Amino acid sequence: MSPLKTEKKEYNIAKQEYYAITKRNKKIATADMLVLGTGLLLKFFNQAEIGKHFMWLGFIIMVYVFGTNMMARNELRKQQP
């Protein structure tokens, strides 16, 4: 096998992993919007103590999703032929 074919194969594998991660993160982000919305609704209905915890959880999940997307993108760029 030539070196170009192996590079292309490695790049395609990295691309598949990137798409799998972004697809998973879209689902997580949808659930995160529900968590943040719940927190905002609780704050609106004078349950600020409980709503504050939901909002912090939502922000933590948002940072996780953003971080994993950035790491996956950097890994894909490293594999680019």
Question: What's the gist of this structure?
Answer:
By secondary structure, the protein is mainly α. The chain contains two helices and no strands.
What brief labels describe this structure?
81 residues, mainly alpha, 2 helices, rod-shaped
Radius of gyration: 19 Å
Q: Measure the end-to-end span.
A: 16 Å
Order of helices and strands: HH
Number of strands: 0
Individual helix count: 2
Keywords: Membrane, Transmembrane, Transmembrane helix
Please characterize this protein's 3D structure.
- The protein is mostly helical and 81 residues long.
- The protein has one domain.
- It is built from two helices and no strands.
- The protein is rod-shaped.
- The two termini are 16 Å apart.
- The mean pLDDT is 92.
Question: What's the helix and strand layout?
Answer:
Blueprint: H1 3-44, H2 48-79
